[in-house]
Amino acid sequence: MTTTTPAEPKSVLPDATSLPAAQQPEWPDATALASVVEQLATYPPLVFAGECDDLRDRMAAAAAGEAFVLQGGDCAETFVSATADNIRDRVKTILQMAAVLTYGASVPVVKIGRMAGQYAKPRSSTSETREGVTLPAYRGDMVNDFEFTPESRTPDPQRLITGYHAAASTLNLVRAFTQGGFADLRYVHEWNRGFVANSANARYEGLARDIDKAMKFMAACGADFEAMRATEFWSAHEALLLDYERPMTRVDSRTGDLYDTSGHFVWIGERTRQLDGAHLDFVSRIRNPIGMKVSDKAQPDELRRVIDLLDPNREPGRLTLITRMGAGTIRDALPPVIEAVQSTGAVVTWICDPMHGNTFESTTGYKTRRFDDVVNEVEGFFEAHRAMGSVPGGIHVELTGNDVTECLGGATEINDEDLNKRYESVCDPRLNHQQSLELAFLVAEMLSRD
Ligand code: PEP
Ligand code: CO
User: Which residues surround ligand 2, an ion (CB under 5 A)?
Assistant: First the structure.
């Protein structure tokens, strides 16, 4: 087994601190922060380098159309919601979606949780004002608390330590679920039968019946279902807080390479992808498979320079571009982006995030998204890639396993008035369990149209 040893963050990342880092909290006490960073650097890695290498291979398969990636989870994980039931239900939702997508795509689905580290958020404004009172914006549980009081909103570096422990216990349970029999394809199939048994989902009965037949066919052929009791499942989050990611970055004793051991896959968000910034510099130095969000604002020349920085060796699986353009924009904005990347010779993994370009405020004052816009953006993503001879490699979705009411529409027809019934996200609206499965059935149809 690979071993990863703690490294002195300073000697490992020599000039990282001299580059501007966007979206970092203003920690009030530099000494307290330094001591936390030092402590984190001594903690065991959450993932091993060899696992990250395996995921890079899976991402390379997705770039070639030989696998399909499903990334999903909360917009912002919180410490209080890191309970066994919540983690189970999120994993279950992802497994159910993956089973449907596997059938649609006829290739393995690479399952990646937006989990076990998604505790920090970029914000469009550094402060928030309510009834004349202005406080620092909520930046995720690893920085401050959502409650609107001066104490709660003051960044506290101890939260980096709590975040590490929350990530460790979440990942431990995820590993237990996915290795210990919970992911058994036969259970997952039964859960999906429950979904289509609901009359609201009758539209998906045909596909569900086909999957049922395929399962029976496999059983009749003597398929080794025991071997399908476990599944690979990877962790991912936005590499936003450099005071967490840097001390979690370790030297792989086999190769001397650096790995960010806070998760298997980390990505850079739309607000921190400056070419001369600390975030791209950071991910350029690690060997993990990495991602970057790309909006309709990305310029072709900028993307070519990003690729030279992040994937200089043109290594399939190394770089994933997660496009988030909006349903009304993707069909125009994605083709020039694909063309720019193709001109570099890089083989990136293309993933569609149909969430972040489709957010708006409801008439009832909630940040929300329409299920139909989400579906429409994924459709536009498939159309653009197919027209350009490129490979649509996966989807990236904000979801929960709970029956929340945060996104509008879907077969159960959540409307503006329903949003206040169960709106629990502390950041962006998530697809609920039903909407997530519905999306999987629709994407499976798109995949099987090939
Ligand atoms: C997110 O994924 O929650 C997010 C903030 O996305 P983006 O960086 O694309 O805006
Ligand atoms: Co979000």
Answer: 75, 428
Is the pLDDT score of 403 beyond 90?
yes
**Dist. CA 268 → ligand 1 center (Å):** 9
| Entry field: residues in the chain | 450
User: For the chain, what percent of residues have pLDDT higher than 70?
Assistant: 96
Distance from Cα 259 to the centre of ligand 2, integer Å: 25
* CATH at residue 353: 3.20.20.70
The response to whether residue 328 sits with its C-beta less than 6 Å from ligand 1 reads no
- Is 335 among the domain residues? yes
Q: What amino acid occupies position 204? A: Y
Which helix (H) or strand (E) element contains residue 381? helix 371-387
Over residues 378-397, mean pLDDT: 98
Q: Ligand 1 atom closest to Cα of 293?
A: 9
The set of residues, in sequence order, having a beta carbon less than 8 Å from that of 269 and lying 6+ positions away, is 23, 122, 238, 240, 293
Closest CA to 188 of 84, 74, 109: 109
Residue nearest to atom 4 of ligand 1 (CA): 269
Range of the domain at 68: 30-123+156-183+230-449
Is 284 among the domain residues?
A: yes
List, in sequence order, every beta strand (DSSP E) within 296-348: 319-323
Binding site membership of 77 for ligand 1 (Cβ less than 6 Å) = no
| Residue 50 CB neighbours (<10 A) | 14
The residues near 274 (Cβ < 8 Å, ≥ 6 apart) are 20, 22, 280
CB of 294 closer than 6 angstroms to any ligand 1 atom: no
What pLDDT is stored for residue 449 in this prediction? 86
Quick check: 14 pLDDT over 50?
no
